[in-house]
# Entry
Amino acid sequence: MAELIDGKALAAAMRAEMAEKVAALRAETGVTPGLGVVLVGDDPASKSYVTAKERALAEAGMVSRDIRLPAETTQAELLQVIAELNADPAVHGILVQLPLPKGLDEAEVIRAIAPEKDVDGFTPVNVGKMVIGEECYLPCTPHGVMKMLERAGVATKGKHAVVVGRSNIVGKPVAHLLAAKNGGNATVTLCHTATQDLAAFTRQADILVVASGRPNTVTGEMVKPGAVVIDVGVNRVPCAGTKTGYRLCGDCDFESVAAVASKLTPVPGGVGPMTITMLLENTHQAAVRAAKRQRS
Ligand code: NAP
# Structure
């Protein structure tokens, strides 16, 4: 049976360290890290993600500027909000909760965020810097995956890492960070829906990262015995016996994968809490850089 990598406990320890760093920054420079959090529309999953992020910010001693906009918000109105946050010196980072309601151009909204406030690491400037290895904000979920591997003592150098999924926010950056010479330094295979015989690739993985957005994409028979499996997926599946009528599950079949893997992340309580923790790290980093600019 696989050892579970407890993202919740890891995140709690890192957030306690972060609260100390935030208090020290405030004492030293008078600066309190501030995050502008923009939520457009009333998608229940997005609302609950934003609430969890705002709670974590408050617990770490940071402040959030909460901006709630109706689903009918126009592109021009949203861009105006971003411009105001870009210009506000008390806002060190900006988070626009995705997905945006239909009709809004996500790519244009992301590009409008000032790169020095892009704590999600989604702007083309940050992505480019990540790829060429310059100082930047790493995207939170991929960075969280790397931290989990590091803190769980999983050696990645020279290992074969297989990533299932190639989205801009998870699969592609995870594959990049795993392959980077100053990062995971692993040999990486990136799989997607055009991959022929997915299991032939996943069975070769020493480290398997699954971010397909579909429950049961990977089952135990697709995993090499002893592999480390990071399940990034968060899916709501109908479940009659629960208060909400649904339960959360990952992109792997938990039971069968746990029987084969050496280490596995649970869902919930795995990658999710680490994603929020890396958002806190980036927001703190943005405030540190802003304080330095103020002084120089
Ligand atoms: P996405 O944009 O839907 O991308 C899914 C990717 O998986 C695509 O590249 C797709 O291939 C590939 N894929 C789908 N089914 C596949 C299959 N059967 N075999 C091989 N590849 C397959 O999803 P995402 O935004 O990357 O998110 C992935 C998962 O992570 C979701 O469950 C999401 O909820 C979760 N997530 C969790 C966190 C967290 O903090 N825990 C954060 C972000 C996302 P194509 O490119 O060919 O379509």
About this structure: Residues 271-295 form the longest helix (25 residues).
